[in-house]
Amino acid sequence: MNNSVLLKSTFITFLAALAIFFSPVMGENKAEASTIASEDITTTAQKFIGVKYRYGGTTTAGFDCSGYVRHVYSELGVSLPRTSKSMYDTGTAVEKSDLAVGDLVFFNTSGSGISHVGIYIGDNKFIHSMTGTGVTTTDINDKWYWGSRYVGAKRVATVE
């Protein structure tokens, strides 16, 4: 093979690799539309209370916050992206005063944008996996920590 053909082949392979690398993954930032009973959300979410926190965790051996939320919704037939930031880019924005069971609630715990996610379960409570505690229920307006770090909420499924 002469140098010209080799160079052209290498260049085309490089362009194809770039196109694949920079192309969006289908459905990566979109939640699948679904209708779920509110009691199914709370029951599914609460069955993991006590599972330990594990950075990057996505299984019952240990969850990080987004791994937990994604796992719960997966059991309910809803596909979500992997990270809290990418989850924040899905669904429909919901005002705090209009929160409903199943809404995803987002927090800035790092000082640099969305860094934590949980599932709203009603009565100003959300369920999430947090460092040092694992899966637990917390008051969304907690004056010591969570209340001041609340950023917003998204609705990713129709809940009855």
Give the tags.
endopeptidase fold (from Nostoc punctiforme), alpha+beta, two-stranded parallel sheet, 10 strands, 160 residues, 6-stranded antiparallel beta sheet
Textual characterization of the structure:
This protein has 160 residues and is an alpha+beta fold. It has one domain: endopeptidase domain like (from Nostoc punctiforme) (endopeptidase fold (from Nostoc punctiforme)), CATH 3.90.1720.10. It has helices at residues 3-22, 38-46, 65-75, 84-88, 146-149, and strands at 35-36, 58-59, 62-63, 92-94, 104-107, 116-122, 125-130, 134-139, 150-155, 158-159. A 6-stranded antiparallel beta sheet has the order 4-9-5-6-7-8. A two-stranded parallel sheet has the order 1-10. The protein has a two-stranded antiparallel ribbon with strand order 2-3. Residues 10-33 have low confidence and may be disordered.
How are the SSEs ordered, and which strands pair?
Blueprint: H1 3-22, E1 35-36, H2 38-46, E2 58-59, E3 62-63, H3 65-75, H4 84-88, E4 92-94, E5 104-107, E6 116-122, E7 125-130, E8 134-139, H5 146-149, E9 150-155, E10 158-159
Parallel strand pairs: 1-10
Antiparallel strand pairs: 2-3, 4-9, 5-6, 5-9, 6-7, 7-8
